[in-house]
Each structure stands twice: as C-alpha cells, then as structure tokens.
Amino acid sequence: MLKTYSAETEVSINVLMGGAYRHLAFIPRTLGGSSFATDDPMLQKAIEQHRFFGTRITLANTLDDNHQKRPDTDAEQTRKTVNLTFSSISDAKDYCADNFGISRTRLKSFEQIKAIAEDNGVVINLK
C-alpha cells in the first residue's frame, strides 16, 4: 500500500526504525509545501509515530496495491470540512491552485475545481 504524506512547509525529519534513525527529506512542491511517498510499512509506521504527524505532517493519499485510491482512510475521516463561497469560478480556481498546489491547467471546469477541493476537505460554492 502506497501512502503519501504532505506538509505545508518543506520538511526533513528523523524517524526511528529498528533501533536506528533514518533521515527523511520531503520533496518540495512548486507552489509551497512538500510531500513524501512510501510503500514500506515499517517506514509508514515510523512516520505516523513521529511527533509532527497529525499537526505539521498529514496523510494526503493512500493507494492500495492496485494503485487505486482507498476510500475512507483514518486521516480522511478525521478531516474537517470547510465551506467556502466565491464570487467567480476564477477566484475558486485561484484558491485551489494556491492552497493545494494544483496546476491551473488541471482546473478547467467548475466540476474539476469542486472535486479537487473536496479531496482536500473544502466544499466550494458560488454566489
């Protein structure tokens, strides 16, 4: 199972694995933040036991062995939903691009904008 972890800033942490520390450097994203993906269950457990997990580091995505997104992971169940209202589709697109690190070219329709936002715990409405 592949898990992707994300942070709002560029993060490097040390995790304890089998009695030794391992240094992890999250990969910076273009529009801010960073992410780290692994399919190693021991490394996943070590990251999830780190003191930053749940505050500065969150579980962004979980893929099963067939690379299908797993529904209702624990992180998604505890995530709070935020409702935002925008006056135009352009404003909603800018919000998604700036806050979620999504390329504006991937946000062509309002349905795509809403889907990306909902994946990140935000419900978008238009006036």
Please give a quick description of this structure:
By secondary structure, the protein is α+β, with helices and mostly antiparallel strands.
Descriptive overview:
By secondary structure, the protein is an alpha+beta fold. It is built from four helices and eight strands; from the N terminus they run βββββαβαβααβ. Strand 4 and strand 5 form a beta hairpin. Helix 3 packs parallel to helix 4. 16% of the residues are buried.
Instruction: Calculate Rg over CA atoms.
Output: 16 Å
What shape does the CA trace take?
elongated
Structural class label: alpha+beta
Distance between the termini: 41 Å
Instruction: Pick out the low-confidence regions.
Output: none
Q: Into which percentage range does the β-strand content fall? A: 25-35%
Order of helices and strands: EEEEEHEHEHHE
Assembly state (oligomeric): single chain
Question: Which secondary structure elements does this structure contain, and how are they paired or packed?
Answer:
Elements: E1 2-7, E2 12-17, E3 20-25, E4 27-28, E5 34-38, H1 41-48, E6 57-63, H2 74-78, E7 82-86, H3 89-100, H4 110-119, E8 122-126
Parallel strand pairs: 7-8
Antiparallel strand pairs: 1-5, 1-6, 2-3, 4-5
Helix pairs in contact: 3-4
Observed structural traits:
127 residues, alpha+beta, two-stranded antiparallel ribbon, 4 helices, 8 strands, elongated
